[in-house]
Design the sequence.
């Protein structure tokens, strides 16, 4: 009623005509809001559908797969599928591997890219423009362009012929290092800010630091801080939104990466690779469940998907509020 | 008057060698008056005297003292200002400025003093460096060639110059050190592989215990473009997909971002849901999720495997309604696409939302007061403010398509590598793809410039 009065007030006089206009306004507003609510609910459903459906099917017993009357809520609840999926995926090992592959490079990349971003945002030096263009170039070049050379780089890792020199001295037994099949092929690029989508992160940091008020840094300079000290003492504590954003993006992209991991670490079972191979592993000729009807394996597959998503989902639910906030404040948009 | 004041200032300078910092700032904050005009009046009144005094004082002082003097003069002038209540404000300000700028004004009259005078701003700059106070450029003053150049002065000047350069170069050095780790990574893990890839594309490559390249010119490129034409087809198909997906994703994500920017109950939850695709990026989950769909086609009718939109039924329904076949197909195609569009636009929505939140609310209030409709508000306020992000999003959508599992060009390149082991051909194909993308982005930038340029 309060609202109606307020709207009434807006339309002025209490005449019948104004009354009519007011109701038109209220109804129009209501319809518009209803339409928006319907659109948002519908789209939310589309986004959540794979998740809801996977969870629903993962909880079904085999019998329920042949029951057409079941849409979402299973008649025979079971958690057996999860334990089966756990075994097939070798989940604990794969989780540990994926954690190693994604967490450590992420930490390194978050730091190196922050340094580079700050350098690009605040300092003037010769060739800065060209260097930043090169950053953008690393974003646009398709990864497949440099895939084979990158592989050979790691296969025979010999930067500046250091390994050759060490071999000549007798420290190394080979004239080059083979970094494939070791975590170094992820750590090293991340350490030097050349890991997964690093160009994008440099860009995000640069945008953030450019929007950062200059006065604080000037105060630090007056107090006798060098550039590095200023960065650590002034910028880093104030750049939490940017760090959060980059950290989340980075770890998610490493986590879901199934392009470089099988290439550099062919013998390591990471979560994406075991998940994409899961169905073959179960129903293949020497699979665990080779004799069973493929249909009955779907619930296990869905359980595998739910297991795969769950660590990310839990992290996201915990950090959701911070994440959505920090995106707005990270100044990505300049 | 000014001469008297100058004498006063001189006395004050002797007494007060250290001047509070605030005064100095005040002096620099006083608006500049017409210096030429002042110089001419000064020389008319008593040019000889003024010159003498300035000469006398300047020759005795170090740059630091001159800086201190300037501050002292300003302080003195401020004091006088307070005392002379009868004088008008303009006169007072000009008086203060007069004293403060005495030395500088002298430049136009006497070249011999130039060298010393030039020291004033330079020295001031040396002090200001620490505080980043903005100092008027002194280039014009310095350009005047001094007639007499005492050795002592020259030495002094070169010293302060050195300080100036070393500060800047120090900053430049620091900046480069910040970027250096990234640059090393760029050279090792991007530039060198890029160069090798380029080399591959012009060579016949044999990988055996390392790799051996044999230069064959553009043969790889000809082969890829002409032979079999599968690559060309894939390229065209990919571009076609982009032409549809990029505008749809961009418009859709802007639309959703505008909706999510409104205030409503449960906004946090809905936002969280819309950012979910960012976390659970498409890729392996979606492939696995959809993979069973193919198997399902065989078993159709016997298994309940969940079809989100009963698209097949819908198209039947639409045709029974008497709709055109092609129109029906188009509509069901869109319905089919909604899923991939929604899942592809997580980050784009995020970027747009961030941009929308950075628009000042006062703009919307103003438009509300002026009686603008929602439509007008969108096009006149929201749209111009998010326009740069539209560009970013378009580029991001294009780049993001590299991660699509159904990117035909990348599939083609992968098959060249993994099935035929034609590394040279694969390199050539990816360079062609890169150049096409680069051209596309260039065109988009050009169009954007054209539109924005017109707006301005």
Sequence:
């Amino acid at each position: 009623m309060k609202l109606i009065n307020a709207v009434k007030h807006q339309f002025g006089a209490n005449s019948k005509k104004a009354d009519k206009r007011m109701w038109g306004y209220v109804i129009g507003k209501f319809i518009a809001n209803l339409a928006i609510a319907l659109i948002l609910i519908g789209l939310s459903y589309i986004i959540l559908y794979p998740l809801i459906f996977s969870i629903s099917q993962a909880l079904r017993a085999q019998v329920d797969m042949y029951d057409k009357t079941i849409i979402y809520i299973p008649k025979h609840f079971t958690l057996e599928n999860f334990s089966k999926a756990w075994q097939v995926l070798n989940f604990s090992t794969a989780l540990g591997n994926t954690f190693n592959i994604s967490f450590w490079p992420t930490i390194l990349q978050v730091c190196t890219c922050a340094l580079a971003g700050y350098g690009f945002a605040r300092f003037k030096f010769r060739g800065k423009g060209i260097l930043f263009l090169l950053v953008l170039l690393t974003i646009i070049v398709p990864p497949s362009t440099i895939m084979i050379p990158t592989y050979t780089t790691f296969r025979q890792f010999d930067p500046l012929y250091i390994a050759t020199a060490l071999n000549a001295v007798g420290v190394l037994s080979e004239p080059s290092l083979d970094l494939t099949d070791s975590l170094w092929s992820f750590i090293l690029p991340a350490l030097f800010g050349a890991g997964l989508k690093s160009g994008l992160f440099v860009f995000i940091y640069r945008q953030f630091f450019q929007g950062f008020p200059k006065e604080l840094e000037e105060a630090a300079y007056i107090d006798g801080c060098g550039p590095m000290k200023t960065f650590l003492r002034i910028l880093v504590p104030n750049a939490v939104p940017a760090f959060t954003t980059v950290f989340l993006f980075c770890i998610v992209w490493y986590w879901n990466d199934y392009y470089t991991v099988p290439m550099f670490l062919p013998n390591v079972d990471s979560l994406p690779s075991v998940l994409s191979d899961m169905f073959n592993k179960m129903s293949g000729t020497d699979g665990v469940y080779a004799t069973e009807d493929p249909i009955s394996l779907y619930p296990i597959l869905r359980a595998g998907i739910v297991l795969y998503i769950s660590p990310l989902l839990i992290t996201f639910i915990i950090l959701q509020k911070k994440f959505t906030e920090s995106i707005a404040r990270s100044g990505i948009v300049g | 008057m000014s001469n008297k004041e100058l004498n006063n200032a001189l006395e004050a300078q002797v007494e007060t060698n250290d001047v509070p910092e605030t005064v100095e700032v005040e002096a620099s904050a006083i608006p500049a008056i017409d210096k030429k005009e002042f110089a001419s009046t000064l020389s008319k009144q008593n040019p000889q005297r003024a010159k003498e005094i300035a000469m006398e004082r300047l020759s005795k002082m170090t740059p630091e003292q001159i800086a201190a003097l300037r501050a002292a003069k300003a302080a003195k002038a401020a004091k006088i200002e307070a005392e002379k209540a009868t004088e008008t404000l303009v006169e007072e300000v000009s008086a203060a400025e007069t004293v403060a700028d005495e030395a500088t004004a002298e430049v136009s009259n006497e070249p011999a003093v130039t060298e010393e005078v030039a020291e004033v701003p330079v020295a001031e700059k040396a002090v200001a460096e620490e505080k980043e106070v903005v100092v008027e450029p002194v280039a014009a003053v310095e350009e005047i060639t001094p007639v007499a150049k005492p050795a002592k002065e020259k030495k002094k000047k070169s010293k302060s110059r050195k300080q100036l350069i070393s500060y800047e170069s120090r900053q430049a050095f620091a900046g480069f050190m910040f970027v250096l780790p990234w640059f090393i990574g760029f050279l090792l893990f991007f530039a060198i592989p890029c160069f090798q890839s380029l080399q591959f594309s012009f060579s016949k490559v044999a990988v055996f215990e390392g790799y051996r390249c044999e230069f064959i010119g553009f043969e790889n490129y000809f082969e890829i473009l002409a032979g079999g034409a599968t690559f060309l087809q894939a390229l065209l198909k990919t571009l076609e997909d982009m032409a549809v997906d990029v505008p749809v994703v961009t418009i859709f994500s802007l639309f959703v971002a505008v909706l999510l920017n409104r205030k409503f109950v449960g906004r946090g939850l809905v936002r969280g849901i819309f950012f979910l695709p960012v976390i659970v990026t498409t890729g392996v989950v979606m492939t696995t999720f959809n993979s069973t769909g193919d198997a399902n086609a065989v078993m159709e009718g016997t298994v309940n495997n969940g079809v989100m939109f009963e698209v097949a039924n819908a198209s039947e329904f639409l045709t029974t309604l008497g709709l055109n076949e092609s129109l029906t197909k188009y509509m069901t195609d869109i319905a089919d696409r909604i899923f991939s569009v929604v899942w592809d636009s997580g980050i784009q929505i995020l970027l747009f939302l961030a941009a929308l939140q950075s628009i000042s609310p006062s703009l919307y209030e103003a438009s509300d007061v002026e009686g603008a409709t929602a439509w007008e508000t969108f096009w006149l306020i929201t749209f111009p403010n998010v326009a740069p992000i539209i560009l970013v999003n378009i580029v991001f959508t294009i780049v993001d398509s590299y991660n699509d599992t159904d990117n035909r060009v990348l599939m083609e390149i992968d098959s060249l590598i993994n099935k035929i082991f034609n590394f040279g051909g694969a390199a050539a194909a990816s360079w062609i793809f890169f150049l096409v993308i680069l051209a596309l982005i260039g065109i988009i930038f050009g169009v954007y410039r054209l539109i924005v340029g017109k707006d301005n």
User: Anything to note?
Assistant: The domain at 90-276 of chain A is CATH 1.10.3720.10 (MetI-like fold). Chain A has a mean pLDDT of 83. Chain A has 16 helices and no strands. Chain A touches chain B through 104 residues (CB under 8 Å).
